[in-house]
Design a protein that fits this description.
About 25% of the residues lie in helices and about 30% in strands. It is α/β, with parallel strands linked by helices and about 180 residues long. The radius of gyration is 16 Å and the shape is globular. The model has no long low-confidence stretch (mean pLDDT about 95). The structure holds guanosine-5'-monophosphate.
Amino acid sequence: MHPDVKEIMFSESEIKNKIKELGERISNDYKECESITVVGILKGAVIFMSDLVRSISVPVFFDFMAVSSYSSSTESSGVVRILKDLDKNVESKHVLIVEDIVDTGLTLNYLINNLRNRNVASLKVCTLLDKPSRRKVDVRIDYNGFEIPDEFVVGYGLDFNECYRNLPYIAVLKPEVYRK
Ligand code: 5GP
C-alpha cells in the first residue's frame, strides 16, 4: 500500500468486478445500436474508461472532453469552462458520458445540457463513483459503480494535486497529506 494511504475503499478486484457488471449492463442496453460514442471526461475518467470499454461488446468510438470548474480546490462553483471539446460531431450518435465521480453534480449537469444541445440520438451517464450526500443539482446517472460517503478519494484515475492517479485502487489519504 502507498505510504500516504490511510485506507483502501475499493480494491483492484472489487473495481474489476464492478466494471464487468457495468459493461454487461451497457452492452445489453445498447445491443440494438450500431455503436456507442463514449465521451471520457479528462483526466480523472481515463483509467475507468479504458477498462470499461474493454468490457463492452457493442462497437465503441472514443472521444474526450476536458472541463474545469471555476472554484477553490474543494468547492465547486457550477461555472464550468470547456478546456477541450469533442474532436467529432456527435449529432445522431448514442453518447455515453464516462465520469470518475459525481460530487455536487454541477459539472455533470453542465455537460449533459451542453451535449444534449448537439442533437444526439441518446445521452446517458456512467460514473464509477457517486457521492449523493453532496449533491447540489439533481442529475440522472444511468450507470453507477459505487455510492460513497462524503470523503475525498484518490486512485484509479482520481488525483489530489495531480498525484495518486496511478494507484490501482480507490483510497482515502492520511489527513496530514491533505494538509500539506
Ligand atoms: P462536481 O461538479 O460533481 O462537484 O465535481 C466533479 C469533479 O470533482 C470530479 O470529476 C472530480 O474531478 C472532482 N471530485 C469530486 N470529488 C472528488 C473526490 O473525492 N476525489 C477526487 N480526486 N476528485 C473529486
